[in-house]
Amino acid sequence: MRLNSLPIRVSLFAGVVIALVFCVGMSFLVQHIGTSVEKQTTALQAETTRSLSEKVSRDLVLAEQTAVDIATTTAAMKTAGITDRAAYDGVLQAMLAANPELLATWSAWQPQALDGRDAEFAGQAPWDVTGRFVPYWQRGSGTIVQEMLTGYDTPGAGDYALLPKSLDRAVAIEPYPYVVGGQEILITSFGVPIKVGGAYVGTAGIDLSLGSINAELSQMRPFDTGNVALVSATGIVVAHPDASLVGKTLPADNPLAQLVQKSLASTDYVETEAAGTDGAPWRYMAVSFAAGGTQDRWSVVSLVPQATLSAAVSEARWAIIGLSALCIIAAIAIVFVLMLRLVGRPLGKLGATVETMAKGNYDLTVPYMTRKDEIGTLSRSVDVFRDNGLKVAAMTEAEAVRIIRDRDERAKMMAELQSAFGNVVDAAIAGDFSRRVNSEFPDAELNALAHGVNTLVETVDAGLDETGKVLAALADTDLTQRIQGNYSGAFAKLKNDTNAVADRLTDVVGQLRGTSRSLRTATAEILSGANDLSDRTTKQAATIEETSAAMEQLARTVIDNASQAETASKKAEDVSRSAEEGGSLMNDANSAMDRITQSSAKISNIIGMIDDIAFQTNLLALNASVEAARAGEAGKGFAVVAVEVRRLAQSAAQASSDVKQLIEQSTVEVSAGSRLVANAADRLVSMLEAVQENSSLLNAIARGSREQASAIEEVSTAVRQMDEMTQHNAALVEEINASIEQTEAQASELDHVVDVFRISHMEQRAPERAPARPAAKAATAAKYQVQGNAALAQDWSEF
Q: 317-343: per-residue pLDDT in tens?
């Protein structure tokens, strides 16, 4: 088949038009897909980086909270008057044992601030030469052992203890190498000032090995091909895919160091493009976070190759190009087959038939005579020409003579006929429908044939011209053009099919317009509701944070009450023991008084007997004096003795009387004292019972306070969990907002793409689409610091 044949030329023309339409549409689509994928990969990398920063932040918050707990506990012990160094060592050792992720716990008290006995402990193991309370409990060798802090008074080396004092806040120390258990490792410290009565007395803190964080981040692979780095505020590398950089400070001109400095000054992610480890361009994205909830900030950086990020766009672009090429080839093939079957082959066969009859062979059948279109008209005209040729062949010899006479004229006429008809047919086969049969023939049938050929060419020309206009309008995004001419047969089918395609495209574009407008309206309403939900979630998070702080304050108050109740209970027990001892002494005194009363009664009886004896002796002496007087001179000596005996008996009687009165008075006093001692013993028993009841009540209060503190801790844990869940909800709302705004932007893009098409005669051509306005960034949900270490021990993922 010739390359300039009608089917090929029409197919090529249609292919060019269809290719133009596809190129315009696909260019819009590829541009839109590229922009959309770029936004999605950026949002996904940003969310991944934020998630990594939140994970590292939670790990550091757990460590920092332990330092806060140590400072709070030791301050409360000091306030309660506890100065036993062993008790403070017990707190540090217990905290380290309860938190296996920590490397060490420590405290550095000011001189004489703990117990005023620094000089007494100076130089004694395990204290240093100052005697200050600076214990360091560490598990560097696997076993928890005690050492002493070093360099705690030297600026630089002792910043872990000095900065919390000078800044008056919790401090995250920049990573530094430290020898623990004879091994140098990269660690960071969290120091918290210890305050008693508002005055600074020391610093409590913990050491955290950064090796586990480095190992965990080195396993992270954003987009399956990326890496993760962790850098402190001063540019010290904590984690990096290049292990040789860990622990070193990045140069100021390093792209990673410059990106980290930008992120520290921003609350959102920052990004840049720099050469990666393979020399190819990579996208660096950094998000800063509060290290351990302090005011010191570190940055997490995700590093992803640009080739990975653009792979989806490249795949989509080539898929669209391939699909477009297949569609164009299929459309050209369909048009070629239709033109070949409906026009090319019929015209070729009719041309061959005419050439055969021009050679004088009329014994053949003219094809396509039954068709109702222009090809059928042309075939029937050729058949009339064949019948005339047969009639000429059947003439008599006379007629043959006449024919021979007229042969030259007929030959000339056939030449003219061949010239007139052949040129027109050849031009039509070559795709040129501008030529016509302009010759006038003496035969009316030939004139009718010429008219039929002209009508056929004009019909084909008009049909193809209108079809071309419609296709050109489609290429120019004008869907208002239709084929208006009256045609029959194949051209009627071509007209109907072409108009049906335009109508269908018009319907599709109209439906797309309605759908895009509805989608934009719906996304606007959803975005409004999501923003409202974000505001409420933010307010709820703030309320929960205040509640959490109040609960923690209440828990500390209850713990203090429990401690004071236990102290009062111990003192009440001491008073109870003293009262018991006093009661026992009173009982002994009462028994002694009883024994004294009994002894006094016995002495009184003895004195009574002595008084009786003196009275009897006095009577005997009186009788002796009477008898001596009766004896006269002989009884004078006996009378003198009797007088002396009588005087002695009277003196003894007087003395015994005095002693008896004293003993009776002592007995009365002893009885009164016994009653007083008994009353005092009863009062002591009453006091003992009251003290015991008071001790029981204080013990009950202490137990209740501890139970209440435990319950408050559980409530605080629940509140902190609600706080973090609210933060997750806020993050989800932020993601929804971003997705909705992206959908709204895509709906606007779809509006612009669809508005390019003109589907009504009254409709103006849409102006050139301006660059899409970037979607407004969704408001970042407020982040709230979560206090306490119970709720942060694990990443909770349920609501």
A: 677 777 777 777 777 778 777 776 777
> For residue 81, which amino acid is it?
G
Dist CA 343 CA 345 (whole Å): 6
Beta bridge partners of 208: 188
Distance (Å, whole) CA 675 – CA 659: 24
Q: Which residue has the tokens 């973090």?
A: 724
Separation CA 734–CA 397 (nearest Å)? 104
Cα 250 vs. chain centroid, distance in angstroms?
A: 28
Count up the domains in the chain and report the number.
2
* Model pLDDT for residues 193-225, shown as the tens digit of each residue: 999 999 999 999 999 988 888 888 888 888 888
> Checking phi first, is residue 210 left (phi over 0); if not, alpha (psi -120 to 50) or beta?
alpha
pLDDT at 316: 66
Is residue 396 a contact partner of residue 408, using CB atoms and an 8 Å limit? no
Task: With a cut of 90, say whether residue 90 has pLDDT above it.
Answer: yes
**By residue range, what is the domain housing residue 580?**
553-755
pLDDT digits (tens, 9 = 90+) for 21-47: 767 776 776 666 667 767 778 888 888
Ramachandran angles phi, psi of 758, nearest 5°: -100, 120
pLDDT range class, residue 514, cuts 50, 70, 90: confident
DSSP 515-543: HHHHHHHHHHHHHHHHHHHHHHHHHHHHH
Amino acid, res. 303: L
Residue 88 parent element (H or E) = helix 85-98
Instruction: Give the DSSP H or E segment for 306.
Output: helix 306-339
* Span of 391-405, 505-519, 546-560, 735-749 with lowest mean pLDDT: 391-405
Q: Are 27 and 477 in contact (CB under 8 A)?
A: no
Strands (DSSP E) along 163-277, which ranges?
171-172, 176-180, 183-196, 199-209, 227-231, 237-239, 270-275
Judge if pTM exceeds 0.70: no
Last residue within a domain, chosen from 340, 355, 384:
340
User: Is 498 within a domain?
Assistant: no
Q: CB neighbours (10 Å) of residue 75? A: 19
Closest Cα partner for 299 from 251, 266, 275, 277?
266
Peptide bond into 126 cis (omega under 30): yes
Query: Is 677 within a domain?
Result: yes
| Per-residue pLDDT, 640 | 66
Please say which residue of 275, 310, 340 terminates a domain. 340
Model confidence over 707-743: pLDDT tens digits?
777 777 777 787 777 777 877 777 777 777 777 777 7
Q: What is the CATH number of the domain that holds 18?
A: 3.30.450.20
Burial class (CB in 10 A: 0-12, 13-18, 19+), 780: middle
User: Is residue 586 assigned to a domain?
Assistant: yes
Please check whether residue 393 lies inside any domain of the structure. Answer: no
Question: For residues 112 and 444, what is the distance between their CA atoms, to the nearest angstrom?
Answer: 137
Angstrom distances, CA of residue 63 to CA of 98, 217, 294, 462:
12, 18, 11, 86
Would you say residue 442 has pLDDT above 70? no
Q: What is the dihedral of CA 191, 194, 199, 201, to 10 degrees?
A: -90
DSSP bridge partners of 303: 227, 284
Residue 469 CB contacts under 8 Å (≥ 6 apart), including other chains: 481
Q: What CATH code is carried by the domain that includes residue 649?
A: 1.10.287.950
